[in-house]
Write a structure and sequence with these properties.
By secondary structure, the protein is mainly alpha-helical. The chain has one domain. The protein contains four helices and no strands.
């Protein structure tokens, strides 16, 4: 009974943790060292070296993905609330 009640909060937390992990450049550099090149690290290097339009495209895609996931979460919550109100 408890797990179904906390499942929306757990899923929302997982989504936010995933989205936030894209922004953790300092942690990636500290833990991974200089040899590990993740997407945030490549973006940081690309911004420092030259202005590349690819960085703007990736940043826009990340924002759109975040908005898509949040919209899906809100619509699922609204459907669930409508279904519970009809009972």
């Amino acid at each position: 009974m408890i797990v179904p009640n906390i499942l929306p909060g757990v899923l929302s937390g997982a989504i936010f943790a995933f989205i936030h992990s894209w922004d953790e450049l300092i942690v990636v550099i500290f833990i991974g060292g200089r040899a590990l090149f993740t997407l945030p690290r490549r973006m940081w290097d690309g911004i420092n070296d030259n202005l590349d339009p690819t960085i703007a495209v990736v940043a826009t895609a990340m924002i759109l993905f975040t908005l898509l996931v949040l919209t899906a979460d809100l619509s699922l919550r609204a459907r669930r609330a409508d279904g519970e109100g009809a009972r």
